[in-house]
Known about the structure:
- The protein is mainly α.
- The chain is built from seven helices and three strands; from the N terminus they run ααβββααααα.
- The radius of gyration is 22 Å and the shape is elongated.
Amino acid sequence: xxxxxVAGLVFLFSLxxxxxxxxxxxxxxxxxxxxxxxxxxxxxxxxxxxxxxSVPVQPVKGELTDHYDPRHKQLxxxxxxxxxxxxxxxxxxxxxxxxxxxxxxxYRPMKLRTAMVxxxxxxxxxxxxxxxxxxxxxxxxxxQIGILGYVGSILLTFLTLPVEFNASKRALAQxxxxxxxxxxxxxxxxxxxxxxxxxxxxxxxxxxxxxVYLVIVGGRSLLRRPEPPMPPPL
Length: 234
């Protein structure tokens, strides 16, 4: 029962934060960037200026599906941001270019995150259910294995924060150096990128709440004294 209460509160907190933080993106996606360049062109200019002509910029379906793929060295932008010339589209495109610059510079936190993704995904998928089943069936071993697996996935979430903040810092520097945004637009870009970063912070907070619960459950399982054996019947 305690788990479901905690899970419900964490879900409502994360949902509320994400909805609140989407508002800067929606607002600045309706404000045209002064240079008037679409996001795809902005990304191409930044990449070419940093000798990354080999990195293609491709449109993808979906909303806010923008990402840089370090395995295939490809930058993909949601169609609205690829074609759009809003301040938000410019900011998001530059942010993804920031990840490409990290990859080119062998930025260690990003390299570590990329290497951990397959393991962390598996741990996140199976760790939490295993810990829950272990707590229901009174199996300390299952609880501890599940906790360790889930901790591994949370480490990736924590590692995401410096990677995302650094990518945003690089993005704003590129926009200013290459004159890709006006001073007014830069203020909007900063708000969009700050909101995106805070979304990751909310994700870390949610993961931390789950971790605290699992650690408490696992600790109780380990510290629980075994019941004395029943005397044989007469």
